[in-house]
Amino acid sequence: MSVDVRTWGAPFRIGATSYIVDAGLVENARFLAAHLQDVQLVLFDLPDGPSNLPDAATVEQLATLGARHDLSYTVHLIDDLQSAPAADEPATTALHPSLDAARRVIDRTQRLAPAAWVGHLEGRAVRARGFAAEELPAWWAQAAQAVEQAGTWAGGVQRLAIENLEGYPPDFVTPVVERTQAARCVDVGHLWLDGRDPIFHLRAAWRRLRVIHLHGVLADPTQPNRDHRSLALMPEPVIDSVVHFLLRNDYRGALTLEIFGEDDFWSSLAVLHASIQRFGD
Fold it and tell me: Which residues, 6+ apart, have CB-to-CB distance to 10 below 8 Å?
């Protein structure tokens, strides 16, 4: 299919994940380079199991594709960041495994000069206890320490974009971002999943906003795996409210279609293009 988002006139860089075609990182980047401006590398590295962490030769191929096609990269860190063990885990002075994984990913992908490394903050323990007010200061402090540590490997904490997750207050990460001066990734699909208006949260994050994740959500709350679906599932006014806000405010960061598979990729691109075309009508 002949689609090239560079002809659409949007100020932001439109991208998708490295899981669109059933192949590896390089094959996905090569496929997407003909259509998009950015690729989010989605990586995994399971203990004693499979890993798609790129070796030096793979990174060099990705860099070559980027230079040849004006293709930029964002990189999603593997594990949710934390610097201290949870309350039910034994104390240790060793580097937390999430940070060790972050260091490996950052080291492997520095050559690509990513627009951002995107990361989550590990918060399941405080969520399980209802976000108790007396626990939050200690959680914010250890999370900030984790972000600052990862930032030293990334060449500056502003190159880390901290993402909101579903099931958490959208401003849960804000004290950590403000304390560390990290960047933000606003996941619009997660906000839709929680029934929240993305515009308020895009405005709140605007000064630090480097990456936006966009994906459709199944309306039926009883269905499993409701998010990371085609944008075709979303009503036209809902899509337009986000896309037109970004166009009106001249957003210049990455807009990642965080979906997986060719069918959802093509249908999401069609929805995004139609929304851009409606802007100003």
Answer: 247, 255, 276
pLDDT digits over 190-240, tens only? Answer: 999 999 999 999 999 999 999 999 999 999 989 989 999 999 999 999 999
Q: Which of 206, 176, 208, 202 is nearest to 188 (CA)?
A: 202
Q: Maximum distance among all alpha carbons in the chain?
A: 59
DSSP for residue 81: B
Per-residue tokens: 163: 């993402």
Q: Where is pLDDT greater, at 47 or 278?
A: 278
Exposure letters 193-213 (e unless 16+ CB within 10 A, then b): beebebeebbeebeebbbbbb
Give the CA distances from residue 205 to residues 23, 127, 164, 184, 198, in Å, rounded to whole numbers and listed in that order.
34, 22, 11, 7, 11
Is-contact 74 38, C-beta < 8 A? yes
209: nearest Cα among 9, 12, 14: 12
Return the sign of the alpha-carbon dihedral for residues 60, 63, 68, 74.
positive
Contacts of 174 by beta carbon, 8 Å cutoff, 6+ apart: 204
> How many beta carbons lie within 10 A of that of residue 7, not counting itself?
8
pTM above 0.85, yes or no: yes
Percent over 90 (pLDDT), the chain: 91
**What is the Cα–Cα distance from 264 to 268, expressed in whole angstroms?**
6
Task: Reply yes or no on whether the pLDDT at 49 is more than 90.
Answer: no
Length of the chain: 281
**Residue 280 confidence class, pLDDT cut points 50, 70, 90:** confident
* pLDDT for position 217: 97
